[in-house]
Amino acid sequence: MAFLIGGSILLMIPAAHLADRFGQRRTILISLIGSAFTYFAMVSLPDLPTAAFAGLCLLTGGMISIANPIIVAFGQALVPHRSSLVSGLLMGFAWALGSTTPMFVGYFAKRNDVGVILALQVLGILLLLSPWLMFALPKQTQTTTSKVSPEHE
């Protein structure tokens, strides 16, 4: 768990710079696709050497975590006059989904016909659906312009 959190710490700031340089949508898409593949590899390859598995955990944690703050910033730019509401909704949905998902995965992991690995792999397959939802986002966000009086220009 520490390596997953460590990965998010290590990749959060570089991801913000990538979002500024290459665009939020492109960075979100790379994060979502990358998180699906690294997560699936982490679940499917538990017999890796410890150092390789720790590195994979760092990469997975980073890839999974970097999309959320960029999505929140994207939402705030879409609705600048209600940025607190947008932040609360997006972060609330993220925390609610993150806190209820283990319950469902645990239920299926306990079943004899499913098992732990298959339950976690199905979660990885569901993670592959998230890039498709990203395409529903608007192409451009509204830009906020500051109103400066002509005498201050």
Radius of gyration: 18 Å
How far is the first residue's CA from the last residue's CA? 52 Å
Tally of helical runs: 6
Percent in strands: under 5%
Keywords summarizing the entry:
153 residues; mainly alpha; 6 helices; 76% helix
Question: What this model shows, in words?
Answer:
This protein has 153 residues and is mainly α. 76% of the residues lie in helices and 0% in strands. 20% of the residues are buried. The protein has helices at 2-22, 24-44, 50-78, 83-110, 116-127, 130-134.
In terms of topology, how is this protein built?
Layout (H helix, E strand, L loop, with lengths): L1 H21 L1 H21 L5 H29 L4 H28 L5 H12 L2 H5 L19
Helix pairs in contact: 1-2, 1-3, 2-3, 2-5, 3-4, 4-5
Short overview:
The protein has 6 helices and no strands. With 153 residues, it is mainly α.
